[in-house]
Design goal:
With 105 residues, this protein is an all-beta fold. The protein has a single domain, classed as Tumour Suppressor Smad4 (Sandwich). Helix content is 0%, strand content 43%. It is built from no helices and eleven strands. The strands form two sheets. The protein has a six-stranded antiparallel sheet, with no helix packed on it. Strand 10 and strand 11 form a beta hairpin. The N and C termini lie close together (6 Å).
Amino acid sequence: MQLELLGGPQDGLLLMLEKDEVYVGRDDSDDVNLYYDRTASRRHLVIAKKHAGFFAKDHGHDGKGSHHGTFLNARNDKSRFRNEGRSLNPGDILFVGHIGIRLVL
């Protein structure tokens, strides 16, 4: 799975992660650590490879959803999801706090 970070001190960083599940948030154990964004939850989001595609689930540190939710491809109420999941396509952008995460492949 290849992800590109958009915004913040890691803007433009390409990450190649050889895992079927990638955790995103501020926790030290997260695969994509957004320690610098206080609006991201400790374990905000999981991105998973499922069969032939990808899936994102707003997670939260207790599994009940992040505090602010996650946005898909836009920052508006229609694109927000919390404690639920969305299918992803290459090029989709997930917004976690102030940071965008583009699914490259």
